[in-house]
Design a protein that fits this description.
Length: 319
C-alpha cells in the first residue's frame, strides 16, 4: 500500500528527492534528444536544465552519505500517496517544442512544491536548508521554462520554429494524407466506372466502389505504416501516418462512389463525374498550398492521370 508523505522519515525524504531528480533528469534528456534535430535551441535549454538537475542529485546524495551512510532506501514517487506524478513519454501526442515546454513547466512546478513541503516537514536544520534551497532553484527553473514560451521568444526564433513546425506538419501529416487521397481518388476510378458501365446498375457500382475504397485504404495504410519508423526521416509515428494515409485513401475513393446511391444510373454517373473533378482540383490545391507546386502544373499532373484512369474504366466497362 502507498504511504502518506508525512509518514516518511528524513532519510526516506532525501531518498525520494534523489529518485525524483534522477527521473526528471532522464526525462529532460529524452526531451532534448527528440527536439535536437529540429529545435536545437530548445534542446540546448533542456540540456542546461538537466545539468542543473544532476547537480541537485549530487548535493542530495552527498548530504545523505554525510548523515546516513551509503545505502539509500528505494523510495519512488509511485510508493507515496499524493506524490507528484509524471505521465509516461508515450502519452505525449507528439514531441513538438510547444507541448514539451508545457510539460517541463508543469514538472518544475510540481518539483518545487514537493521541496517546499518537504522542507516544512523536516526538523533537521541541514536537510531543511538544502530542501529550501532546491525549492528556490526549482522556482527559478519554472520561471525559465515559462520564458521558453513562443510568445516570449525573439521574433526571429519564433519564425524559425514556426517554419520548422510547418515542415514537420507537411512531412508527418500532409504528405501521407495527400498520398492516400491521390491513390484513393485515382486508383478506384477504373474499377468503379468499369463496374458502372458494365452493369448499368447504381447499386452494383456502389458496392464495387466501396469495396475498392476499403481495400485501397487498408493496403495504403499498412504500406505507409511499415515504410519506415520515422526515426531517421523525421516522418513521425508510423502507425499514425498509416492511419492518416489509409483514412484519406478511403475518403478519396468513397467520395465518387456515394453518388451511386442515386437509383437513376445516368444521374448518378453525372454526379460522380463532377465529384471526381472536384477531388482532382482539391488535390491540385493541396499540392500548391503545401508542396509549393504551381497550381496549373499541379492541375495538369493530377488531371491527366485521373482522366486516363477514368477513361480506362469506361472503356473496359463498355467492352
Amino acid at each position: 500500500m502507498k504511504r502518506r508523505f508525512k509518514e516518511l522519515s528524513p532519510p526516506e525524504v532525501l531518498a525520494l528527492a534523489i529518485s525524483l531528480e534522477e527521473e526528471d533528469g532522464r526525462i529532460f534528456q529524452e526531451f532534448s534528444r527528440r527536439l535536437r534535430p529540429n529545435f536545437p535551441k530548445a534542446a540546448s535549454a533542456l540540456d542546461q536544465m538537466r545539468a542543473e538537475e544532476d547537480s541537485h542529485r549530487h548535493r542530495l546524495i552527498e548530504l545523505f552519505q554525510k548523515k546516513y551512510g551509503n545505502e539509500i532506501p528505494l523510495v519512488r514517487r509511485q510508493d507515496v500517496r499524493g506524490f507528484v506524478s509524471r505521465d509516461p513519454l508515450h502519452a505525449l501526442r507528439s514531441f513538438d517544442a510547444k507541448e514539451i515546454r508545457q510539460r517541463v513547466a508543469l514538472m518544475e512546478l510540481e518539483t518545487q512544491r514537493f521541496y517546499s513541503r518537504a522542507a516544512e516537514q523536516t526538523t533537521d536544520a541541514e536537510i531543511r536548508q538544502l530542501l529550501g534551497d532546491l525549492a528556490e532553484e526549482e522556482r527559478r527553473h519554472e520561471s525559465r521554462s515559462a520564458e521558453l514560451d513562443p510568445d516570449r521568444m525573439p521574433a526571429e526564433e519564433r519564425e524559425e520554429e514556426s517554419r520548422i513546425a510547418r515542415r514537420l506538419f507537411v512531412l508527418q501529416v500532409v504528405q501521407p494524407g495527400l498520398a492516400g487521397l491521390m491513390d484513393g481518388s485515382v486508383s478506384t476510378l477504373a474499377p468503379l466506372f468499369a463496374a458502372a458501365f458494365a452493369t448499368r446498375s447504381s447499386w452494383q457500382a456502389l458496392l464495387v466502389g466501396i469495396a475498392a475504397s476499403v481495400g485501397a485504404g487498408i493496403s495504403m495504410g499498412f504500406a505507409e505504416a511499415i515504410s519506415d519508423d520515422g526515426s531517421l526521416t523525421g516522418r513521425g509515428r508510423p502507425w499514425l501516418r498509416g492511419f492518416i494515409c489509409g483514412l484519406m485513401t478511403f475518403i478519396g475513393g468513397v467520395g465518387h462512389a456515394i453518388p451511386f446511391l442515386i437509383p437513376h444510373f445516368g444521374i448518378a454517373t453525372a454526379v460522380a463525374t463532377m465529384v471526381v473533378g472536384l477531388e482532382l482540383l482539391a488535390i491540385a490545391w493541396i499540392r500548391k498550398r503545401y508542396m509549393d507546386t504551381p497550381f496549373l502544373a499541379a492541375v495538369f499532373q493530377v488531371v491527366v492521370g485521373g482522366v486516363l484512369v477514368f477513361l480506362a474504366g469506361i472503356l473496359i466497362g463498355s467492352a
